[in-house]
Amino acid sequence: MPKTWFITGASSGLGLEMTQQLLTQGHNVVAAIRRAGALTKLAQEYRERLDIVQLDLVEPERIASAVRDAFQRHERIEVIVSNAGYGLFGAAEELTTEEIDRQIATNLAGSIHLIRAALPLLRKQGGGRIVQVSSEGGQIAYPGFSLYHATKWGIEGFVEAVAQEVAPFGIDFIIAEPGPTGTNFGANLVRAKPMDAYDETPAGAVRRAITDGSFEIKGDAARTVSAIISAAESKTPPLRLALGSTAYSSISQALSARLSALEAQRGVANSADRQDL
């Protein structure tokens, strides 16, 4: 049966790919985009099933009204996809206050406001599903992406808590964690002004790899989106969905290393308990 999906960041990258796949499959899409006119061709082809909304996630009040209006226009919205965001690259010391604030406002606060706006409406209709597009960078970290990781680790913690809060209402979540994927993410990457002091550091090495194209990208955008859609349409999807061999390998290694480090601290951890219990 056709469903209605609400997707932010629908004009490029994974959001655009998802919008195209869903429309091709016969679904309805409320496509939230920041730049007016970005989906003109799709609108002409799918005018009856594509509802375009202009929305910038740094405007919390606009998010709330856009979500509320979308639910009023459509009988039911089954899936909310929080996808909009971008990457900020630079060693922490290289970043400006404005760059930091914009990254957090878009990737973290914007996603939080979107989810909060959708919850009462999903409760009212008796349930629904929220897909939060995160990244392998929600569980691991590359040097030079500290603020990007702060937003992805942050939104994953938020979602994991909220998922427990709203499960009784028939609302569940998927946290999609793609590895490096062939989209325009790199082209849209905001880069801080580099400092010479970081040239011969891990941050400098990653900067060079991104610049010269040697940063390995194995993920396929169409396959990644297809996997997310399949998970969203399944009866009992996983809370976290690793996508791509790089994501699977890097997350697995990070979790194993953290578990090993934790086990080595068992005695110290237990020693911090109260002794009068």
Would you kindly provide a brief summary of this structure?
By secondary structure, the protein is an alpha/beta fold. The chain is 48% helix and 15% strand.
How is the secondary structure organized here?
Elements: E1 4-8, H1 13-24, E2 28-33, H2 40-45, E3 50-54, H3 60-73, E4 79-82, E5 88-89, H4 97-125, E6 128-133, H5 146-166, E7 171-178, E8 190-191, H6 202-212, H7 221-233, E9 240-243, H8 245-264, H9 266-271
Parallel strand pairs: 1-2, 1-4, 2-3, 4-6, 5-8, 6-7, 7-9
Percent of sequence in beta strands: 15-25%
- How much helicity do the residues have? 40-55%
How far apart are the termini?
Answer: 57 Å
Q: What strand order characterises the main sheet?
A: 3-2-1-4-6-7-9
Nearest-angstrom radius of gyration? 20 Å
Tell me, briefly, the overall form. globular
Structural class: alpha/beta
Count, helices: 9
Output mean pLDDT. Answer: 95
**Poorly predicted runs of 5 or more residues:** none
Summarize the helix and strand pattern as letters. EHEHEHEEHEHEEHHEHH
**Quick one: how many beta strands?**
9
The largest pleated sheet is described as: 7 strands, parallel
InterPro entries: NAD(P)-bd_dom_sf, SDR_fam, SDR_oxidoreductase
Keywords: Oxidoreductase
Family: Belongs to the short-chain dehydrogenases/reductases (SDR) family.
Protein name: SDR family oxidoreductase
